[in-house]
TrEMBL record:
<dbReference type="GO" id="GO:0016627">
    <property type="term" value="F:oxidoreductase activity, acting on the CH-CH group of donors"/>
</dbReference>
<feature type="transmembrane region" description="Helical">
    <location>
        <begin position="158"/>
        <end position="176"/>
    </location>
</feature>
<dbReference type="Pfam" id="PF02544">
    <property type="entry name" value="Steroid_dh"/>
</dbReference>
<feature type="domain" description="3-oxo-5-alpha-steroid 4-dehydrogenase C-terminal">
    <location>
        <begin position="157"/>
        <end position="267"/>
    </location>
</feature>
<feature type="transmembrane region" description="Helical">
    <location>
        <begin position="18"/>
        <end position="40"/>
    </location>
</feature>
<protein>
    <submittedName>
        <fullName>Steroid 5-alpha-reductase DET2</fullName>
    </submittedName>
</protein>
<dbReference type="GO" id="GO:0016491">
    <property type="term" value="F:oxidoreductase activity"/>
</dbReference>
<comment type="similarity">
    <text>Belongs to the steroid 5-alpha reductase family.</text>
</comment>
<feature type="transmembrane region" description="Helical">
    <location>
        <begin position="197"/>
        <end position="217"/>
    </location>
</feature>
<dbReference type="InterPro" id="IPR039357">
    <property type="entry name" value="SRD5A/TECR"/>
</dbReference>
<dbReference type="GO" id="GO:0006629">
    <property type="term" value="P:lipid metabolic process"/>
</dbReference>
<feature type="transmembrane region" description="Helical">
    <location>
        <begin position="67"/>
        <end position="86"/>
    </location>
</feature>
<dbReference type="GO" id="GO:0016020">
    <property type="term" value="C:membrane"/>
</dbReference>
<keyword id="KW-0812">Transmembrane</keyword>
<keyword id="KW-1133">Transmembrane helix</keyword>
<dbReference type="InterPro" id="IPR001104">
    <property type="entry name" value="3-oxo-5_a-steroid_4-DH_C"/>
</dbReference>
<feature type="transmembrane region" description="Helical">
    <location>
        <begin position="122"/>
        <end position="146"/>
    </location>
</feature>
Amino acid sequence: MPMTQIFREILFQEPSLIFNKIMVVMNLVFSAILGISEAFGKQNLEYSKFWNLNSKKQVKAKVPSRMGMLIAYTPSLIACLSFFWIFPNGGIRFFMLNSAIALHFFKRVLEVLFVHKYSGAMAMNSAITISSSYLMAFSSLIYIQHLTEGSSEPNIDLKYLGFIVFMVGIIGNFYYHFLLSNMRKKGENGYKIPKGGLFNLVICPHYLFEIVTFLGFSLISQTLFSFSSTIGTSFYLMGRSYATRKWYLSKFEDFPRTVKALIPFVF
């Protein structure tokens, strides 16, 4: 079956609005740029071990990393919850998508509060940039889903499969965040080589399951913008996982070179 025919079968025939087209292009272009920058060692956003350990740049306004990540995630969670009130009659697909995204950010906030262990700081401007990007991207995803109301449903309905894929992604992502957190004992600030599960094959299985989570969003939504979000996220996380593997190789002489960055045995 030709690719164009597959798209017709699984995608909504969305209204031909300039907003939709601009958001799709922005998603792909900026995510690709960020991913390539990360892969080549340019840290666009001033947070994480790469920045805290390697950056000599003076930043005027910094906040503790935990506070910075709460600033990054909380506005999107609040926005998702508000969309239940703004669009009360969105239908089952809209409800599933908004619920999945709200659950995604609720999990992130809980992880920041109770799972992740932080030892550094985060530039305030980066916290605001990340927060604004998430808010714009996910608000657009939900709004575009709202615009499909009244449109013909795709011939192939993937929303229930999408919710299953989403649950696999969010559970896997949490599991590997939990393993990473348990590696650092109380009072420890250093880094260790992660081990166990898929860590024996890739250094960033949490990123791999985050991509699975986004694929779940796309299958629930079945809009062109949602799939562009998944592709864009994949570009970015490929670059970041490549940089992460390179960082571990530089810090640990005994880092196993057979361990890939993101995809077992491949990349």
